[in-house]
Amino acid sequence: MPYLVERGFKILSVGLRIRLNSSEIIARQMNRKSKGTAAERELVNLFWAGSWACIRVAGSGSVRHPSPDLLAGQGHRTLAIEVKASRSRSVYLSKEEIRDLISFSAMFGAEPWVGIRFDRVGWYFITPEDMVETPSHFVASLEKVRMTGLLFEELTTSKGTRA
User: Fold this and answer.
1) Which of 10, 20, 25, 126 is the most buried (most CB within 10 A)?
2) Around Cβ 83, how many Cβ atoms within 10 Å?
3) Domain ranges in the chain?
């Protein structure tokens, strides 16, 4: 059913569906975008509270040059972070998002990280190499992230270095 909802259908009951109007589709897209923006802002505040400098990158994902969602640094470490927030148990990133994160990080001299906030679970951070590659995406499941990922406190200590 999520496929139908993404394609603009509202499920009323089993087997019955109606087409959403354009304003409902735009509202759903705005809700997704605002959720992502809120997650990015939350993470910026966490970094500043932990004595790290952090900024959101304007135009990330909408410009032709690679750019992460956030840049964070503290003296000897710089992190380039692609941010995702999810209510489901898996997060999908396009191959282009991961390729751009790795490319930008190499040029900028930053460590590439994917920051994922699972609803009712919290923040985890994984490297692109820790994600599972499928033919069309990179996937991070909550179970995999709990095994291989770092919590915010682990990422922002010297133990978090994985460059």
Assistant:
1) 126
2) 23
3) 35-160
Question: Cβ(96)–Cβ(130) under 8 Å?
Answer: no
Check if the beta carbon of residue 138 is closer than 8 Å to that of residue 95: yes
Q: Active-site residues: which are they? A: 60
Q: Is 124 helix (H, G, I), strand (E, B) or coil?
A: strand
Tell me the C-alpha distance between 65 and 15, whole Å: 44
Are 160 and 154 spatial neighbours (Cβ–Cβ below 8 Å)? yes
117 phi, psi to nearest 5 deg: -110, 110
The architecture in CATH of the region 35-160 reads: 3-Layer(aba) Sandwich (3.40)
Q: How far apart are CA 15 and CA 160, in angstroms?
A: 49
d(CA 146, CA 125): 9
Rounded to two decimals, what is the model's pTM?
0.76
